[in-house]
What we know:
By secondary structure, the chain is of the alpha/beta class.
Amino acid sequence: MISPEDALxxxxxxxxxxxxxxxxxxxxxxxxxxxxxxxxxxxxxLDNTAMDGYAVRAADTAGAGxxxxxxxxxxxxxxxxxxxxxxxxxxxxxxxxxxxxxPAGADAVVPFEETDEPFGKAPERSRKLSATVRVYKEARxxxxxxxxxxxxxxxxxxxxxxxxxxxxxxxxIASVGRARVRVIRRPVVAVLSTGDELVAVGGPRSGAxxxxxxxxxxxxxxxxxxxxxxxxxxxxxTVKALTAKIQRGLDADMLIxxxxxxxxDYDVVKDVLAREGEIAFWTVAMKPxxxxxFGSFQKDGRRVPHIGLPGNPVSSMVAxxxxxxxxLMKMMGKTDWRRPIVRAIAEDEIANRDDPRVFFARxxxxxxxxxxxxxxxxxxxxxxxxxxxxxxxxxxxxxxVDVVRPGDEVDVLMLDWSRGEEWGSYLSEGDGPPxxxxx
Length: 439
Ligand code: AMP
Ligand code: MG
């Protein structure tokens, strides 16, 4: 039996970072940038106003107050996207909208609220520009002005090679004008189910047959972690059928099969791997997910890594979380595939007596009064997928711990944080100000 750490290290030593591709910026969300992105100009390009109001010379507002307004003559107005032709001279002001460049001569912007023009006085188009404006508050030089280059400087690298693109990076790259980017390609993952008992979803089922759920749960995990699943269907438990299906999957970047790796008579995945590929079979010291096959096939001079997941629906998901996810992420050029582990107070007894394996028990972590609690989600049988569905995490109960009692602390590997109702949420119904509704 080998440890999960050793198994993962060996798997990772077999998978390589994929080549880069160029694609439209928005489609690159979640992928790893393969170039440095630099700004070609200052951002913002010009000094501009942060408020709707009047561009003035600050000195002209000296001493202004509610009882001592300063009256300035309005010499024009300016919307965002336009530049003022003239200059703001002493005693003059230009009516100006957020984002519009500050006219020459002006060094401050007085917001409408501090003038005799109440905010939103009249519809924009029908309003006549008044000849004068009264300013009720002194403005300091630079007030309400966003400086050219305060966000980015021309020539500056704004997003570095190796960065995982999130919505904010996508926005920053767009702000410097780039429509396409070079990113590490997403891995195409061929997913194959094996077993004479399986039938495809959508069709009829009877007797001892069960629907193939693994292709969907594992395919969904592949998608969640950034890969592109390609379902190969179901292979019968014969070397011939399996070999044929596997051959069809070898133009993918990785092959994932489920089932057929335990000790039963019809567990043919290992036979095919041994005949057609390079193979390792492991019993991994983890529960669930003990039997695992790993190897690779050669196709057109390429080595296609193969992870043979166990067949039980929970085992295949847990083994994918522990081994498949890091492999996928490495292929995508990601270097940090850690995920949150939280300490939680056990609410149930979690027993793993006389078993030298790490126990990944399905649990739900909730937060109450600033403390985290973990409770088991039901049967821990590796065939019971519904208890996986109720879980948001897996306990990491070390091999040498026999039992965790209620009140003891346990580490939990968080799979997702989507059980918002238990976590308390921002601006959800009932949480907002009176009368507020969630979007
Ligand atoms: P095996 O690894 O072939 O011994 O399968 C272990 C258990 O997982 C058996 O009960 C199988 O019926 C079940 N199983 C295998 N493949 C799937 C699948 N694709 N979907 C649902 N259950 C499966
Ligand atoms: Mg089977």
